[in-house]
Design a protein that fits this description.
There is one protein chain. This protein has 5 helices and 2 strands, in the order ααααββα. The chain is mainly alpha-helical. The chain has a domain of 78 residues. A hairpin with a 5-residue loop joins strand 1 and strand 2.
């Protein structure tokens, strides 16, 4: 009963504040001109189209990308399955390594790793004589492993500021 009362009080407060500030609510904006372009469109769309058309174009683009992703991932998964069952030792071990590397990894962690690798490789610059990274401050604060140098033991990874 308390949850219903809290919900009712919240709705009343929002309605009162919206009316007092003169904010128009509803779906009337869907008929107005959107004023922006969408690069990829499966149906005719321009900046003069309505918000409803923009939402529909976005929905169709989402369906297209979902379908393409499902097809490509199915093909990739079948390739990995056949590679893992292959009699070729190297191909089988590479597929096993890939599967074990990504098994039980949450999607968000996997996305973060991919985004980090892409951003580090695409914007890398030499920031000091000891490391190669995109942002020295970010590397020191987040603990990105530094690349091994000739002055350090081979395969000794640590923070960029660590002394070994």
């Amino acid at each position: 009963m308390g949850v219903i009362a809290l919900f009712y009080a919240t709705v009343q407060t929002v309605a009162t504040n919206v009316a007092r500030q003169g904010v128009q609510t509803g779906f009337g904006f869907l008929g107005r001109e959107a004023g922006f372009a969408i690069n990829q469109s499966l149906i005719p769309y321009s900046h003069e189209s309505t918000y409803a058309a923009a939402i529909f174009v976005a929905f169709l683009n989402t369906l297209l990308l979902a379908g393409l992703t499902i097809m490509l991932c199915t093909v990739f998964g079948l390739f990995l399955a056949f590679a893992r069952m292959s009699s070729n030792w190297l191909l089988s071990k590479l597929a096993q390594l890939y599967v074990e590397m990504f098994r039980n990894v949450p999607l968000r962690a996997s996305a973060n790793r991919s985004i980090s690798l892409v951003s580090l490789s695409s914007t890398s610059r030499v920031c000091s004589s000891r490391c190669r990274c995109s942002m020295k401050a970010a590397r020191l604060s987040c603990g990105w492993p530094s690349l091994p140098s000739r002055r350090r033991r081979p395969f000794a990874f640590g923070r960029a500021g660590d002394k070994t």
